[in-house]
Amino acid sequence: MAQSSNFSPTLDLETVKKRAIVGVVSLTLRRIALQAITFLSINIILARIYPPETGILGIFNLANSVIAFFAFFSDIGLAASLIQKKGDVTNEDLRTTFTIQQILVGAITVIVFFAAPQIASYYKLDSAGMWLVRALGIAFLFSSLKVVPSVLLERELRFNPLVAVEITETLVFNIILLTLAFMGFGIFSFTFAALGRAVVGTSLIYLIAPWRVRIGICKQSIKNLLTFGLPYQLNTLLALLKDRIVPLFVAKVVGAVGLSFITWSQAIAFLPLEVMNIIIRVTFPAFSRLQDDKGELKAAVEKSLFATTLFLYPALFGMLALAPSLVTHVVSSKWQPALPSIYLFSFSTFWATLSTPFTNVFNATGNVRLTLRLMIMWTILTWILTPVFTVLYGFNGVAIASALISFTSVITIYLVKRTVSVNIIANIWQPLAISILMAVFVFGFAHIFVQNILTFFLAIILGAIFYFSVFALVAKEKLLVELKRVVNGIK
Fold first, then answer.
1. Any alpha helices (H) in 39-90, and if so which ranges?
2. At residue 146, what are phi and psi to the nearest 5 degrees?
């Protein structure tokens, strides 16, 4: 008989709520710092070193898309099943998940390594591009070894060890990347940075959260885990087809230079989504533990929605206000053609604020097939509209298609209300209204005063002060209630 793993005890309601709050705060503070480092490293410093005509940012995105395509076939949703599972995770569950995943990942890594020359030839990449594909494949193999320790920590809502690993990985990656870029290594800068990140991150997580590797397969564990895992993985497949396979087609149409514009504009427009990704990472296991208590689940969803929009909306509208100054005074005017795409991709960011947390609710409550139907719709629309608009409007066509498709998120809003009676307007209107006011202020300030990188960051600081000052004036009580809840959760 399977024995319950000591890593995954059943958590009571108060522990779930407290750890979720601590997790959000911990992840938010650290991820803001990490994303600032990565943003400055790739989208500002590297964008200045390697302008769009080099195509280097596009090649890196293309190589990542290739690996993402192969990576899908290495996962059958077992890790997600472990997180979502209501009862304790057994040793047989862990052993089975690890064994199956390593068999699949090992096979994929071998395929990627030997297929790299053909991939490089198809996309007209040089030998540096070919070795980047191989390096990302090897890095993927190392990263797969982190799955079980990461799952165990996430089930217990213990995010500090995970954050420590991510901090180290980010620092290692960016230090190697920038050092080699300044030395003129070109695309090889990404190659060595990716390998360094993978080796250090995998080693560190086993030091921080040791798990004894076990090999073996339990048929009953496979059967139980695949009940949730297969539908969940079908969603992953559709997300892959929607978000990663399309760039493989687009790269053939617009080339490395056009793909560089797409990569850079997406990075700018989607940067605010990091706030949401942090909260979702915490709320998926938290919502899973609350799925049988509709009242607590409703409260948790509303609080996560408010927390998301509290930080995401000012980041989004502030970014839109400062985008022209970013191009002109911080990066390089050579990136000017990407501005329309930044504004168009921002529609996707705005609507994702609602659609993504709500699909997270569906997954956490076991309604994964509902998410699957939504993903089918979005994938079909992406594959129909993106090629057409790319042919008609070049690299900007990708952003046009993305903006149009984003409006279908209203369907998600309708569906979530059938699962949880969430009060959406009450939790988003204040952050939205104040963010728009802040954007007007920041745009005016930037138009008059921003002339270099120092005044650019001054505009960001003044925008943050303006936003939270106005918020304190018009919604002081709500803000204090949420801050008190955070403080009580940390104590």
1. 47-49, 56-72, 78-84
2. -85, -10
Distance in Å from the first CA to the final CA of the chain: 39
Backbone angles phi, psi at 427, to 5 degrees: -100, -5
CB 211 within 8 A of CB 7: yes
Structure tokens at 125: 């990449």
A 10 A CB-CB count for 210 gives: 9
pTM given for the model? 0.72
Specify the amino acid at residue 404: L
Q: How many residues comprise the chain? A: 491
Find the helix packing angle between 127-144 and 188-208, rounded to 10°. Answer: 10
d(C-alpha 42, C-alpha 264), whole Å = 9
- Contact call for residues 228 and 171 (beta carbons, < 8 A): no
pLDDT values of the chain reduced to their tens digit, one per residue, 491 residues: 334 444 445 555 555 555 555 555 666 666 677 777 887 888 888 888 888 888 888 888 888 777 766 665 555 566 667 766 666 778 888 888 888 888 888 988 999 999 999 999 988 889 999 999 999 999 989 988 888 888 888 777 677 788 788 889 989 999 999 999 999 999 999 999 999 999 999 999 998 888 888 888 888 777 776 665 556 656 666 666 666 666 678 888 888 889 899 989 998 999 888 778 777 766 776 777 777 777 888 888 888 888 889 889 999 999 999 999 999 999 989 999 999 999 999 999 999 988 888 888 888 787 878 888 898 898 889 889 998 999 999 999 999 999 999 999 999 999 988 878 888 998 899 999 999 999 999 999 999 999 999 999 999 999 999 999 999 898 877 777 666 654 454 34
Q: Which residue has the tokens 């410093």?
A: 45
Q: Which residues of 162-200 are buried (b: 16+ CB within 10 A; e: fewer)?
A: bbbbbbbbbebbbebbbebbeeebbbbbbbbbbbbbbbb
CA angle 349, 263, 316 (to 5 degrees): 25
d(Cα 170, Cα 204) in Å, to the nearest integer? 13
